[in-house]
Specification:
- This protein is mainly α.
- The protein contains two helices and no strands.
- The chain has helices at 2-12, 17-35.
């Protein structure tokens, strides 16, 4: 983390947090791209949404 902020100071000047948050945004997008192809599993709990049943 401190290495990214120091690198941001040397590249962009200022406080270095701009580069840090750009790297965080890039990793967030990259992680979303890798998670999308994971298939969703079917739930083992079957929910019955029959509104005609009486609740006792």
């Amino acid at each position: 983390m401190t290495v990214l902020i120091a690198l941001g100071v040397s590249l962009f000047g200022g406080d270095g947090y701009t580069f840090f948050f750009l790297v965080l945004a890039a990793f967030s997008i990259l992680s979303a791209v890798f998670v999308l192809p994971i298939p969703e599993m079917e739930s083992k709990l079957k929910v019955n949404n029959d509104l005609n049943e009486k609740v006792v």
